[in-house]
Amino acid sequence: MELEKPFFSNFGAICVFAFGGTLISTFGVGILIYIFGQLKWTYSMPFLICLAFGALISATDPVTVLAIFHELGADANLYAYIFGESVLNDAVAIVMYKTVLSFVTSPISDQGIFDAISFFIIIFLGSFSIGVLAGIFSALLFKYGGFQQKGLSILESCLVVLFPYLAYNVADALELSGIVSILFAGITMKYYTAPNLSSQAQHVTTGFFGMLSKLSETFIFIYMGVATFLEQQSWNNIGFMFFTIVSILVARLWNVYPCSALVNHFREETKHIAKNQQHALWFSGLRGAMAFALALQSVTDLPDNHGRVLLTTTLLTIFFTVLLIGGSTSYVLKSLKIECHSPEDEGEGSEEVLERKMEDVLDIEKVQCKEMKGLHILSNKQRAKLKEKLKKIKSNTSFSSLDKKYLRPFLQAAPSGEGVNLQRSSPSTAHSYHEDQRFSDMENCSNKICKRS
Hints:
Layout: H1 4-9, H2 11-38, H3 47-57, H4 63-72, H5 76-105, H6 110-144, H7 153-173, H8 178-193, H9 199-230, H10 239-265, H11 275-283, H12 289-301, H13 306-327, H14 329-336, H15 351-371, H16 380-397, H17 399-411, H18 427-452
């Protein structure tokens, strides 16, 4: 599943979920846990420690859900929302945890709050810049290095592996977030560096990173299973896990739906996050590696044995969300009627999908034509000029236009297959050509609808 395009096109929404949503989740879980403790329903902790727990348990890691989404071919935008939120909110959760932890040992002040906000901005922007710069430098190196001409595909693969690691180490040395740096280094390299590699190097690196991903996921869950029995646990407060799960689900509710409404408010109606996708977002808030790592750290960070309680609760919460929620993902997708396309649907079976797309766009064109009836008071020339100006403004200010005109020519080598005849091109290219032809016919049809209305 191609991720960089939906990730960039939905980056604003992802940031809303990752930053605003994680902030809401942190305070939501912390306040609810504190209230339950004050009511003597469960284990009671000071408010700041409840907030620290809210921060560490707000780090989502829906690896099971994403694996099922990838297997079923779920909607790419929904996949990007969940993946982007899970990666970016790790950084938010880490900074929030460290910030709240600093208030546990020292009194809260206006200067401390200001320092926390500036610290968070510096962490994110610095990590983001290091990752992007590493990706840009790698793209330029492979563009002008002449590795393909010299047949150095193995060296290409080695360097591709080292650049994200370099970004991580530089960010870590500067006490920034290595996770955010390696994320944006990977995205930038996928978008700009990968086309500069030879086909053999692309094949090798894709397989290598796929192997590392699978091994890392397996090792993390093995480590969590072993830690359940080797680490000292607090089994006397099992009821605390129940109220933690309730708090997580409620805080996730406060997180997803208001953030989705905010995103939809600033988007066109055709790009709104649908209700069934919002339900899927709420359901996909699994906990995993980052929550476990922070809970393990809290054992030494928090006083009065609170860290042991949080570690046990976090482990049980992870097992519950991964096994129960993650295991029922495919059934939830079916009940929510989330559109999925298996790999077999991409060939000849994609005609039905294309027909549905054409019908949807025709419906959108009809709505737009109705909305433009107010323009009939203008002359045809005035309307044409107005439409042309709006198109120019939109095209000149979009990232895709900037990317096409400046970034790609600067960072990528010119494709060797320019000017190839369509009949000799790949079947996917020919298929996209026919797709474009059909959509152009559809556009003519929509223009006729506008004229009739």
